[in-house]
Amino acid sequence: MRRALLLCLAALTLSGCAALGALDRAAEPLDVHELRAPAEVPAAPGSGAAQVVVEAPSAAGAIATDRILVREGATQVAYLPDARWSAEAPEMVRSAMVETLIRAGAFGFVGRRPLGATGDYALVSELVDFGARPEAGGEGAEVAMTLVARLVRERDAEIVAARRFAHAVRVPDTSTPALLSGFAAVSDAVLTDLAGWAARAAGRG
């Protein structure tokens, strides 16, 4: 009886230590990373003095976090243990979208809210994919970003144009630096395409 009790207490002690260890690891600060506008954004011909308000993209729960997503299977998700984004992914992407559109120079005003009661256009989007997928049986990974965007004319709430932007790159391994370089590459590609499309769509609208 005493032996059984001692074994039970030992097991409880070990499980308690494991739980405390997990809490200690959870409390460790993570390195913070930020995705911004591409370093070089081609000038986009467009809509002159028009105002565009950029809404934060909608996103599924697994993406709508400041953790860096790694998809480990068809339904299983995980996050990088040693790094996080500077803000929740949709808000970080919105900031990069605003900066990219400003650098493209096609609009008179780009912001998170209009200068007056309403802007001329609203850029509404959904962040469908924003994660890494390790290769099955390999050392590398694919990093992918998919953004569905709609340019909405504010005065009558009409969708002027809609488009799906998707880009993926392969990185040689699943280290944090390699994955982050992949995220930067796909973000740059998507945002560059988005800026040119939004300027052309607003010019037609």
- The dominant shape is elongated
Radius of gyration: 22 Å
Q: What's the helical proportion of residues?
A: 25-40%
Spans of at least 5 consecutive residues with low confidence:
1-26
Keywords summarizing the entry:
205 residues, alpha/beta, six-stranded mixed sheet, disordered N terminus
Structure, described:
By secondary structure, this protein is of the alpha/beta class. Helices cover about 35% and strands about 35% of the residues. It is built from three helices and nine strands, in the order H-E-E-E-E-E-H-E-E-E-E-H. The chain has helices at about 1-25, 90-105, 175-205, and strands spanning about 30-35, 50-55, 60, 65-70, 75-85, 110, 120-135, 140-155, 160-170. The strands form two sheets. Strands 2, 3, 6, 7, 8 and 9 form a six-stranded mixed beta sheet that branches. A three-stranded mixed beta sheet has the order 1-5-4, with no helix packed on it. A hairpin with a 5-residue loop joins strand 4 (about 65-70) and strand 5 (about 75-85). Helix 2 packs across helix 3. The longest helix has 29 residues, at about 175-205. The model is unreliable at about 1-25 (pLDDT under 50).
Question: What is the element layout, followed by pairings?
Answer:
Layout: H1 2-27, E1 31-33, E2 51-54, E3 58-59, E4 67-71, E5 77-85, H2 89-104, E6 109-111, E7 121-134, E8 141-153, E9 158-171, H3 176-204
Parallel strand pairs: 1-5, 2-6, 2-7, 3-7
Antiparallel strand pairs: 4-5, 7-8, 8-9
